[in-house]
Amino acid sequence: MKLLRSILCRYTILVLFGLFAVNAGASTPWQVWPAVGDARLTWGPWVIYDSELRSPDGKYQGAGDNLALVIRYHRNIDSEDLIEATDDQWRHLGISSSKRTRWINRLEQIWPDVRKGDRLIFVLDDNQGAFFQDNRQIGVLQDFEMSQSFLQIWLSPNTAYPEIRNQLIGKR
């Protein structure tokens, strides 16, 4: 019995060491990244969504960072309306019509309709973008420029919502 306990103890230690070694090089999931800042978008008396920007160290350094933008909706919104609003914002930022058309076609393949309480999350991690609905991945963007341009809707100095930008990047 003592021998069996000793073998099990050693086996457990080896398994735990193996798990640690496998996970030591893995990137930290966005769900545990600290918040940089948060903001609320309203339209008249209605709250449209709450947003939060996260990064691995809780700081915003600028374009190219690993970032997660978490948006929790307070209203039901069809995917077509989300896509139209995204296109409007990209137009505002001066993105060419040909790029917008290509990018909108990609978003049409990914985005669902959202319901009150849903979260859509965009994560830029190691130069790849991914969309999540709550904690379930729903699409990946291989186009780094598209990923950056999506985040720039909120983070560009030329955003249509400078107050929201300042709140998200921690400048209240």
UniProtKB/TrEMBL annotation:
GO MF terms here are: isomerase activity
Q: Which InterPro entries match?
A: Chalcone_isomerase
Record-annotated Chalcone isomerase domain positions: 67-170
Protein name stated in the entry: Chalcone isomerase family protein
Record keywords, A-Z: Isomerase
A Pfam family: Chalcone_3
Q: What is the species listed in this Swiss-Prot or TrEMBL entry? A: Photobacterium rosenbergii
